[in-house]
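sorry for the late reply, my laptop died twice this morning and i had to redo everyting from scratch. anyway the thing you sent over, i finally got around to it. pasting the sequence first so we're on the same page, its 95 residues, then the predicted structure underneath. double check i copied it right bc i was rushing
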Amino acid sequence: VNTVRELLDPATNMRVGFTNLRNMLELFDGDVRLAVIAYNRGDVAVQRALRRGRYPENGYAEKVLGGRAHGGRRYDGPGRVPRRTASAAPDTAGR
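ok and here's the structure:
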C-alpha cells in the first residue's frame, strides 16, 4: 500500500488488516485474544506488558470477541484464552 487513497479502498484495507491480524496470530502462537489486542494496541505494547507481568487487555478484545459482536454469544473458538478475573493474568511463560 503506497498511498492513503489505496488504503481507503475497502478491498485493500481488508487485505492489509487481515494480513496484520494473521501476523499477530503467528506472533502470539495462535492466541486470538492477544492477537486482537495487539492488532489494536500494537505488538510492541503487548509484548512490553507481558514482559512486565501485566495482562495487556484494554477492552478492545471484549468488544471484538464478546457477545455483542457475535449475535449474543461470546467467541469461544480456537485460541480463545479463558475469561479470567481482573486480578488474574494469564500464564505468559515463554513469551
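The two ends are 30 Å apart (CA to CA).
thats about all i looked at so far, will dig more tmrw
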